[in-house]
Amino acid sequence: MIVTTPRLAASFIERLEKHYTVIGPIAGLEPGGLPPEAREAKALITLGSYGTPDALMAALPSLGLILCYGTGFEGVDLEAARRRGVAVTNAGDANAETVAEFAMGLTLATGRKIVEGDRYVRDGRWKGNAIERMPLVPGLLGKRMGIYGLGAIGRRVATRAAAFGMQIGYHNRRQVPDLHYEYHDSLESLARWCDVLMVSVRAAAENRHAVNARVLAALGPQGHVVNISRGSVVDTEALCDALERQGVAGAALDVYEQEPHVPERLRAIPTAVLTPHIGAYAESAQAVQQQVVLDNLEALLAGRPLMNQAA
Q: Could you list the active site residues?
């Protein structure tokens, strides 16, 4: 028996139901409100951004495995899981290629004003074929991409950005050996150096609002912020302040602090490109993520090692 927190794709539910009894989605239910049969569930499928507290694990006493469908663990009480002997896994780098290509799409959208150009045409403002129809932009060639979090996704973003002729720098907790990219020992230093600040770090309590007013000031009025990590990493109010006073040139966001709520203030800013957390929404990535879940469920029941297990 499996419990699901989010609403999963109908096709994936069908695959699960060929082998397991599936209960859910249970998002929004208090642990005490779970159906009685959930006490027999061996596994919980959730998202890393959803809360999976000790109380929920206590309400599922047969639980042996928490499967985070995406790449994060941040909503799971890992200490409680370890204490209860519950394994926690995620999708690893299953969606890394897809998110990296989407990250570059957002970079182009904000840096080359693609969304503004779309509005320009739709609003009927294109009146003639003058050479300069909209204000000129710097473009990406020769510009600096600063990557905050050079993990599975960040590395792939770096490869793609380099193909656009961009210089690459990064900030991690520690320098990555044998990489020729420019390392910065602080996020503020990276922001001061780069033209595009790409946020691809794994979400954790210690990096909440890491991209704050000070970092945005270092990025400056020609800089752009792209966030394909988690909304919690960027201070939304500080970003709105910077965008409204043109302290930064633009932002492209696929993630938000209180999803699916996107503040009206942010939605009203024309230099912000906003998408509904769809970086991993490609058939290829979803197929791999689903297979990781199925393989780990099978491994749990067979007593085999799990993939992508949290430390």
A: 230, 259, 277
* AA letter at 41: A
| Phi then psi dihedrals of residue 163, to 5 deg | -65, -20
Q: What fold does the segment set 96-127+136-274 form as a domain? A: Rossmann fold (3.40.50)
List, for residues 252-271, the tens digit of each pLDDT value. Answer: 999 999 999 999 999 999 99
**Dihedral over alpha carbons 301, 305, 307, 311 (to 10 degrees):** 110
What are residue 55's phi and psi, to 5 degrees? Answer: -60, -35
- CATH number attached to the domain at 2-94+282-302: 3.40.50.720
Equal CATH topology for 2-94+282-302 and 96-127+136-274: yes
CA distances from 306 to 90, 198, 256, 301, 309 (A): 10, 31, 30, 11, 6
Q: What DSSP character marks residue 18?
A: T
8 Å CB contact between 181 and 150: yes
pLDDT of residue 205: 87
- Strand partners for 124: none
CA contacts within 13 A on the Cβ side of 170 = 25
Q: What is the pTM of this model?
A: 0.93
Return the residue matching tokens 């663990």.
73
Mean pLDDT value across residues 40-67? 95
Percent share of the chain, pLDDT over 90: 88
Q: Tell me what the pLDDT averaged over the chain comes to.
A: 95
Domains of the chain, residue spans: 2-94+282-302, 96-127+136-274
